[in-house]
Amino acid sequence: MLSRRIGHFVESVIRDMTRLSLKYDAINLAQGFPDFPAPQELKQAGATAIMEDYNQYSITWGAKDLRDEISRKALKYNNIEADPDSEITVTCGSTEAMMDAMLALINEGDEVVIFEPFYENYGPDSAVSGAVPRFVPLKDDYSINEDALVSAFNKKTRALILNTPNNPCGKVFTKEEFKLIAELCIEHDVIAVTDEIYEHILYDNNKHISIASLPEMKDRTLTISGFSKTYSVTGWRIGYAIAQKDITSAIRKVHDFLTVGAPAPLQHACVTALRFPDSYYKDLAGMYDRKRKILYNSLINAGFKCKMPGGAYYILADFPEETGMDDMAFAKYLVSEIGVACVPGSSFYISKEGKHKLRFTFSKKDETLIEAARRLEKLKI
């Protein structure tokens, strides 16, 4: 007999689309990883750490030098004061940090508020931890539906998951929306668990805000981020969680028995990343802004309807009902017949809204995106 928890979810559709992309020799605009090199200085730091023999276990909750740099960065960029010794845990990517958070905070039957559209992992995270998810659909413009959010909170609510900038739609939550969320969390004694992995990828003068920086929210927020997206090292699997010491103590217990620790030499290399100059982050956003426009224009020209994302590196696009296909069938048609892989929208929705949407990533070389545009021109939609 298998665990009942496993019956509540399927394997990742995103990773499955990558496998189909390889099968059909398609352009992979499904999975959010770059096809261009990571920064040379960072790669050299990783190689140097290996050669200098940082190859054994580090401290379970993270190398001291890395936690010190995360603390410095959190104060400077996120306006969060965090003790590196008692409030920061280095994890195997932000994915593990989120699972750690759920297992540390949730009791069977607790409810967790999740905005829709949502990153596909949040559903399985809820199932494994025993949580009951309460999905709150965003409006068509991706702003918060205040009435729906208020009604989602009750005496069983334990946590709220907040992903900003949002995967898959690129929504960047505003200060006014954060104030509403904070008021509800305080009123109902709820922990905000924030996924801020795309925090440096912002457009159109959007500013990143960490809800932990708001009054009365530091001690009731668990802030998650990592190095995968900002530094183009998705395969390194280095993330971290910031929380007040009691929550951190619980996180560390889960982390210790779940993975023991993140890769030691790569932790030391990530210290170098956090010491990059401010110009690096400006150039990063500028690069992705250019790629965003290339993909947006190619989707519009191919007959899709979509909005420019305010952050992250994805576009959620609507395709016409006239295709006669749902999102899964159309995504498979695109990868096998057109040669472009994307993700079916239902991976990010519990409602039927996702059935006419697809997610595309623009975390690719310009020439990759231009070739994808050329292939998409074959569509007649």
β-strand number: 13
Question: How do the SSEs run, as a string of H and E?
Answer: HEHHEHEHEHEHEEEHHHEEHEEEH
Oligomer: single chain
Please identify the structural class as seen in this structure: alpha/beta
Count of helix runs: 12
Rg on CA atoms, Å: 20 Å
State the major sheet. 7 strands, mixed
Would you write up a description of this structure?
With 381 residues, this protein is of the alpha/beta class. It is 40% helix and 15% strand. The protein has twelve helices and 13 strands. Strands 2-8-7-6-5-3-4 form a seven-stranded mixed beta sheet, sandwiched between helices. A four-stranded antiparallel beta sheet has the order 9-10-13-12. The radius of gyration is 20 Å and the shape is globular. The termini are far apart. 49% of the residues are buried.
